Amino acid sequence: MTEDALPEPDRLDGAPHPRETARLFGQHEAEATFLAAVTSGRLPHGWLLTGPEGVGKATFAWRAARFLLATPPDTGDSLFGAPPPPDSLDIDDDHPVAARLRALSEPGLCLIRRPWDEKTKKLKTQLTVDEVRRVKSFFHMSAGGGGRRVVIVDNADEMNASAANALLKELEEPPKDAVLFLISHRPSGLLPTIRSRCRTLRFGPLGPEDLNKAFTQAGQSPPENASALAELAGGSVGEALRLSSHGGLVLYRDLILLLDGLPRLDRPLALRLSEATSGKGGEVAFDMTLSLLDRALSRLARQGATGHSLPEIVPGEAKTLARLAPDPMAARLWADLAATLTARARRGRAVNLDPAALTFDMFLDLDRTAAQLRAA
Fold first, then answer.
1. How high is the pLDDT of residue 76?
2. pTM for the full predicted model
3. Alpha helix (H) ranges present in 144-245?
4. Rounded-to-integer distance, Cα 268 and Cα 212, Å
5. What CATH architecture is 3-202?
């Protein structure tokens, strides 16, 4: 397989790669914070980009890289004085730096991500130390972009211990005008010493309006029910695209309908949903069923813990959640089930157990839990 045909671990199916995405929606505060640091003349060398998966962290990293490499730092020796400070990270699409970044040929950028394994013909499951060591070699090369060099680590959560320690060394003594962007969905799992050497930029979930704009930019038609999709996806564009492509709202509706019948399990519906996880397209259906069931159980736990109704994703959901999780005791029971149920199913699938049987067993566990609550 040629290098340009290899799968990219940081590309979402059905969407352009973040380096090909021109605009970032819903993250004005993060962009303004970064731009203020640039114009202050005290730009931190390490940036930890945190927040839910799919809300624009990687898109921001590539936008910031384009901006830094296309706008060399002010050295103060201009004959006409300093140019006015920029008020945006926007760079023209036809700028040479933008074109080189899209082609992954920009000498001032080093992209660190999970590599391809020639032996298994798959992407490696971890970001390895050999990949991170490329940063050291990159820093030893002559600087590009008027002196700036940019590193994007996508994503830092995937580093193994050796890779994390290697990256820490580069963060401790970076060269002048080097900037590292570490993308992390779960920053608590990173080394505290890595976190302490970076300035954190937090990215929040997107609302329905920004979600529609992101869909349009990705070449997709805006979803019919953007509010429901935004709530179900947790404000993540990436998750919303996945859900939209695979009928996520319809599946979630069926799962809520199944919950509504508990503790008298609707067996025909449970069998239909279980059988959909086998055969052609079954792997996608199994994974989505587990992720949406996780979502439903977490909403049940929140409902019971707070006593406040959540925004409905599908009609009738609020009534179902209130009945099944009326109090904190019920919330704890559903939370305990959420902590083990889908993880157990994923382990079973990893050892090639029948996905339909695993899914149906989960529905039986839901039924038993609801019966336990009724008897309490």
1. 56
2. 0.86
3. 161-172, 192-196, 208-217, 226-232, 237-245
4. 36
5. 3-Layer(aba) Sandwich (3.40)
